[in-house]
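stage 2 :: seqdesign
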């Protein structure tokens, strides 16, 4: 039975480069999950994009004397390039700064308004008379009214960690950002739209309390508490900012009102699905993931994003009901699962881009391979608790597992076969009980590993594949074809044929995790074709200008999640090592790079 699987991956802010914490938090697990389902023959749609709006972008633009558009476009292009190199197979990685996303976000806003889920309210906000504008909370600095710290931000105090009410800051001033901003601030009244979370709460609570046994406890438990607390109220979904999506209400854009970034960025999952459909000439196709109740929509995010995806986004979907769909019985699908990840630390400390305490994607790839990154990150995935990237451990995982257990297994069997059987898969004749037993174990891996991936236990799934590779090594130790070949070549042929078939199966079991090496191995084994499809850059023109994207064309992919049927006589290709062994000294060199100003 073919399933429709929507893989929704968190939208990164386009205000800084991507580091390993970002990759492991959402992009990589989403890709592993998607690749597996594609191999299973399911209809997979993977969407995400750059979050181009909001103060993270404008703050950086102000600090660098650039426009917000320049900042977002610069980082967006780098995201596309990095995801291609790491092999994150987005069907569409787009941005929130597109005509399509503007329209879909505004339409969701209008649907919420028509269904009575929005209200307006007047609040007080700091106003700068020199700049003649309201300042977002992040732009205001002052003394914390909780702990007395004198450089607290309007939205949060970095000293005591509390979320703050900006209007209560003591001695507020505009945050210095290159330009002179010493003018006094005054509180002025401003009107905003609010999402009525309280109205959605009963439906939210009912939904969160049914069929969620497959959710991670750290995701479902706090979400149930939040939805059932009776404390969900309105939350402002518009703000005074000149960068972002205009509020689609007469007179509001002229007053400088934009949709709040947290409100519109999550709509990106829907708008990107719609954009993907249009780009592929099937404008209604997205409905198969968004309205078909059998479809599964799975959200890959970091834990800091959990309330937005498990409470607020479902509230938006419940309130909107339906868009671009005339059948009143149909409503937008709520998340099937939200396997949020905990955080990744680095050498025992929190990752910090500004202190350069980070392993940056591009920098890593300048010295190591994408599969080495994917392997190590999967092996330490913070699925149930925070994890730590340690360079020494990276080298150990690479050398002991990826190289010794898996790469060497494939390479030595292939090389041996290539030499002794004239580069062909040997004819084994009838297999012996030990051969049949090994192949049965490997074949069973398609079930066990598949079930682990489906329940998003990716770390355990990879561990299971590695232990299957260890089984093949053990089998070879017992059979010892290296000496057997001199005494009784027909027996050695049975061993090598069995090992090759096991390796051909392991190639597929490893493929969602380390796809680049699986493709190479596929070719060394003498097969043709690509296990997965091709990633392609695109440029789309619209009324806002043009934006770049990354897409996936799976039409030529031949990989299938099923055991090998390797035929005797198949011609191999000259094998090469699959992975590079790393010098243990690199751990020290890499640690020395951390915390230094980047080049
Ligand atoms: Zn404080």
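stage 2 :: out
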């Amino acid at each position: 039975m073919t399933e429709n699987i929507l893989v929704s991956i968190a939208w990164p802010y386009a205000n800084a480069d991507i580091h390993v914490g970002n990759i492991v938090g959402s992009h990589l697990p989403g890709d592993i999950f998607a690749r597996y389902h594609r191999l299973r023959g399911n209809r997979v749609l993977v969407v995400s994009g750059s979050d181009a709006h909001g103060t993270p972008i404008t703050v950086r633009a102000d600090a660098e004397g650039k426009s917000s558009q320049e900042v977002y476009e610069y980082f967006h292009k780098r995201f596309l390039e990095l995801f291609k190199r790491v092999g994150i197979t987005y069907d569409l990685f787009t941005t929130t700064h597109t005509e399509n996303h503007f329209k879909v976000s505004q339409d969701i806003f209008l649907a919420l308004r028509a269904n009575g889920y929005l209200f307006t309210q007047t609040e007080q906000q700091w106003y700068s008379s020199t700049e003649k504008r309201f300042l977002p909370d992040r732009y205001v600095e002052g003394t914390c009214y909780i702990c007395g710290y004198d450089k607290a931000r309007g939205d949060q105090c970095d000293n005591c960690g509390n979320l703050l009410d900006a209007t209560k800051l003591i001695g507020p001033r505009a945050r210095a950002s290159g330009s002179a901003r010493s003018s006094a601030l005054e509180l002025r009244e401003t009107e905003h739209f609010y999402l009525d979370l309280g109205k959605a709460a009963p439906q939210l609570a009912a939904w969160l309390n049914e069929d969620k046994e497959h959710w991670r406890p750290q995701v479902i438990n706090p979400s149930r508490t939040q939805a059932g607390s009776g404390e969900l109220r309105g939350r402002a979904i518009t703000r005074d900012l000149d960068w972002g999506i205009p509020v689609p209400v007469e007179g509001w854009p002229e007053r400088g009102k934009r949709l709040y970034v947290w409100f519109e960025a999550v709509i990106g999952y829907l708008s990107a699905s719609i954009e993907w459909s249009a780009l592929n000439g099937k404008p209604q196709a997205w409905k198969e993931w968004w309205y078909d109740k059998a479809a599964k929509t799975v959200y890959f995010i970091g834990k800091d994003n959990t309330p937005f995806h498990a409470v607020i986004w479902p509230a938006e979907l419940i309130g909107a009901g339906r868009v671009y769909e005339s059948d009143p019985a149909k409503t937008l699908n709520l998340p099937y699962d939200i396997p949020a990840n905990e955080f990744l630390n680095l050498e025992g400390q929190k990752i910090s881009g500004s202190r350069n305490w980070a392993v940056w994607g591009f920098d890593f790839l300048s010295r190591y391979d994408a599969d080495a990154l994917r392997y190590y990150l999967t092996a330490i995935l913070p699925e149930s608790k925070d994890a730590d990237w340690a360079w020494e451990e990276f080298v150990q995982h690479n050398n002991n597992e990826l190289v010794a257990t898996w790469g060497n297994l494939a390479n030595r069997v292939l090389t041996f076969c290539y030499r002794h059987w004239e580069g062909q898969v040997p004819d084994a004749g009838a297999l012996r009980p030990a051969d049949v037993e090994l192949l049965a174990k490997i074949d069973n891996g398609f079930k066990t590993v598949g079930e682990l991936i489906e329940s998003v236990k990716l770390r355990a799934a990879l561990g299971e594949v590695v232990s299957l590779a260890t089984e093949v090594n053990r089998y070879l130790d017992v059979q010892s074809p290296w000496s057997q070949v001199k005494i009784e070549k027909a027996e050695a042929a049975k061993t090598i044929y069995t090992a090759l078939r096991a390796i051909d199966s392991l190639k597929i079991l490893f493929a969602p995790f380390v796809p680049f090496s699986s493709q190479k191995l596929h070719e060394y084994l003498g097969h043709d074709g690509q296990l997965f499809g091709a990633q392609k850059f695109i440029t789309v023109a619209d009324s806002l200008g043009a934006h770049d994207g990354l897409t996936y064309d799976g039409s030529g992919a031949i990989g299938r999640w099923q055991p090998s049927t390797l035929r005797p006589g198949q011609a191999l290709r000259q094998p090469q090592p699959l992975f590079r062994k790393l010098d243990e000294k690199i751990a020290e060199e890499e640690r020395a790079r951390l915390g230094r100003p980047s080049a």
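stage 3 :: structure notes
- Residues 144, 146-147, 149, 152, 157, 159-160, 162 surround zinc ion (CB under 6 Å).
- The mean pLDDT is 95.
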